[in-house]
Amino acid sequence: MQLLTRTLAARASAIQLVAVAVVLAVSASLVATYVRETAGAATAIWIAIVTILVVLFLVTAYEFRQLHEHVAVKGILVLHDGGFVDIPRYKLSRDINAAFKAILNENEAISRQWGDGDLRDNDEEDPGPKRLRVKLMHEVMEYVLLQKLGSHLADKNGSTPASQISSYERPDLLPLLTDNRVLDQLSRPVEDRIALVKARDGQAKHFLEIIRKGPRDGEGILWQASDGTHMYSRLILELPRGARVVRVESENIRIISKYVEVDLFVNFGGSGILDSEFLEEYLGLPPIDFYRGKTGKGQIWNLTFHVGVRLKWRALFSPNAWKLYLWCESFADACRKDYGWEAFQAHIGWETARTLLIARASSRRNKSEDHS
Q1: What is the pTM of this model?
Q2: Do residues 49 and 295 lie in contact, with contact meaning Cβ atoms separated by under 8 Å?
């Protein structure tokens, strides 16, 4: 994502074009002088004004048009034996697995909807079960993305004056909760969650609270709580003052501010493919057992996180907007780093490891043939 770079370049080019506009205006003035001498002063003035306005309009249309940026971060999910496989060192896998287990453990109705079915089921007479499972997957993915957005904003805005920041918490984001049961359930206060209250008051062995303290937090706020089975995550977004958070469609969340609009949405895609070496050597799931095992069918699914940014022309003239530009770029980069499948494979050096595994297997086969 090169939003900041493009914006700076646009502003620099605009300054150059304004200089050109000034030169053209001077030229227009000379023409107007000639026209004044031949056609009159009033006509000359109008010609000069129209010429300047046309030039400035062309400059504005060329350089100050709204800038758009769209980043699509592609990841994968591995399902086996009715649940998600935790892929070591892949943060997306960890985050989705935690949210998925928490919602199924706490909400029996949602757990029954998920059931033991297959997301590949396509019963034309009764497509309901598959539709409900896909909807749940979308809600979990959106929950994970919003939690990441909240933590990212909290980290990035710590040095921003409080007068420039507005905090949006659960009561301010009710339209988002209506269409996302996972977000609604897991962000409910601990005091409203009987299982977490019992774990906290009884000082359960596995109960854990995370308190975050920032320059605007005073004594700190409860950010997360878990007893190992149930989970609470605070729903809070820190945005530029005056921003609005709306759901423009059932799957699209939009953040609207004076200088920028940000669209967040997720797609749960079709089936994917993993190489057999990764399944067997990295995940410990032999391909035959994974796809045809007695415990259930293994499934690999594609998913995509989308971050769309649209800058408004007035942002180019505002020094206060630069931090927002940086946030847009850094958030997209953070999503790519933590959730992108290609970034994960590069991080663990999988292509190199896979080459070594293939070479080792080939060497073993050759030795076996020599002995035979």
Answers
A1: 0.78
A2: no
In contact, 109 and 184? CB cutoff 8 Å? no
pLDDT tens-place string over residues 79-98: 888 788 999 999 999 999 99
- Cα separations (Å) of 325 from 245, 272, 319? 18, 34, 11
Crossing angle of helices 350-371 and 341-348, in 10° steps, is 60
Give the Cα-Cα-Cα angle 206, 187, 148 (nearest 5 degrees): 90
Please answer whether residues 305 and 142 qualify as being in contact, where contact means their C-beta atoms are separated by less than 8 angstroms.
no
Instruction: Quote the pLDDT of residue 139.
Output: 93
Q: Tokens 């949405």 label which residue?
A: 265
Q: Which letter does DSSP use for residue 221 in this model?
A: E
Residue reference for tokens 């304004």: 18
Local structure of 310: helix, strand or coil: strand
Q: How confident is the model at residue 163 (pLDDT cuts 50, 70, 90)?
A: low
Closest CA to 6 of 63, 60, 71, 58: 63
Q: What is the C-alpha to C-alpha distance for residues 72 and 106, in angstroms, rounded to an integer? A: 32
Beta strand ranges found along the chain (DSSP E): 67-80, 83-84, 165-169, 208-212, 221-226, 231-233, 236-240, 244-249, 252-256, 260-271, 299-311
Asked if residue 262 lies in contact with residue 288, where contact means CB atoms within 8 angstroms, the answer is no
> In the prediction, which pLDDT does 211 show?
86
User: From the CB of residue 151, how many other CB atoms can be counted at a distance below 10 Å?
Assistant: 17
Q: Pseudo-torsion of CA 169, 171, 177, 183, nearest 10°?
A: 40
Helix segments in 171-277, DSSP class H = 174-178, 181-186, 194-201, 276-277
pLDDT tens-digit series, residues 179-235: 999 999 999 999 999 989 999 888 888 889 988 776 566 677 888 999 988 999 999
Q: Is 79 helix (H, G, I), strand (E, B) or coil?
A: strand
For residue 301, list its beta bridge partners: 77, 271
